[in-house]
Amino acid sequence: MISGSEYISSRLPGFSVGRHRNLLRQNFYYRFRITLLISAIFFFPVIVYSQSKISLSEAIEIATKNNLSLNNERLKTEHAKALIKSAANIPGTQLNTEFGQFNSSFFDTRFSVSQSFAMPAVYNRQKELFTKDWEATMLNVSMKQYELKKAITETFYSHLYLQEKEKLLITIDSLYANLLQKANMRLQKGESNILEKTTFETQRTAIALQLTQSKQQMQMIEEIFQLLLNTDQKHIPAGNLKMVEQDLTDLSTIQNHPALKVAAQQQQIAKANTDVERSKLLPELVAGYNNMSVQGTGADDINYSAGHRFHSGQIGIGIPIFTGAQKARVKASRINEQVAENNFNIEKQSLQNSYLKYLAQYRQNSNMLELYQNGYLRNVTIIKETANRQFLNGEINYLEFVMLLNQAINIQSGYIDLLNEHNKSVVALIYLNK
Fold first, then answer.
1. What is the rounded distance in angstroms from the CA atom of residue 57 to the CA atom of residue 191?
2. What is the pTM for the complete model shown?
3. How many folded domains does the chain comprise?
4. pLDDT tens-digit profile of 305-342?
5. Which residue of 5, 87, 94, 284 could cross-link 318, Cys pair, CB 3.0 to 4.6 Å?
């Protein structure tokens, strides 16, 4: 005699009562977990970080206001401006008291106050030096703005490049997914072999790997972009990958480059510092006032007590005699002027070389883009349509089809890569011309 479970198993091959019970338990637990998840969604707060698309001009405007490095440079400007008022740094006033028998046998007292001053030229030249330093900090702000705008632009277009790459990969993945579905149907009907199906699966796996890498790179770019903007809200670059054409062939505009202005300002600072060091070889002025008692009979045969005070003034000049150390500072400062001049020439030459390098890359990339737009990209559609039609009609096998399809994909991917390289040279030239 057989049990009910054995009877059901014998009538329904592949069915197991124990397995059925396990499925029921799994189904119950699954529904229980779903219920908990829905409850959590409705009854517990969920933190969602909002995202918004942003244009390049908007990104630059936000970064200019919020970037910490740029704000720090502005604070340095205020600091340098406040230091200008410290140019007239007058030494402390000396107060002296003398008491004892320095006039006669009587006990006398003397009070004196004295003040030394540098020549007015010293204070004027120090003020000029501090003013030059302040102007240098303002130029550093412009330089930091230049660097920030360039970094924003490069990051912006790098993200657009990865967006285009991702769109292409998704399109290709969808195409291979359709081909894989058809390959499975043909395999079931016996119209193809396992190698065709495996080939399409391998292609999809490779595309999935590239998509994963692209998303990781995009996430890294977004973090850098967010750091540059310094905002709580997450912004995603939105725009056209191809940059607007501009006239980038004017080399004379390099003279207005912020880096060159900073180097030129350092020349002025070096010269102003030499003037300050030279002015320190000038004499110092000293002025003083004395108040004292002279007890006893004076030269006028009058007897004076301690309460009667005598006054005197003092004017002097401090002549620097041991000037060897100060002259050495003047000599060192003049050498620093030559260093600043060389740095200016080096910076100018570096900018010119960079300009010529990026200009050559720009022209080369422009020529290549023209070839793609006038020839290669037009062939992509022809290759895809023809290969697909011939493959479905059986005129070519799947290996030939994959080879032709990859050729078309490589053209599209190469065009996107070339646009990215073209943008890099354009960005470099734009900011070399500012």
1. 57
2. 0.73
3. 1
4. 888 888 999 999 989 899 999 999 999 999 999 999 99
5. 284
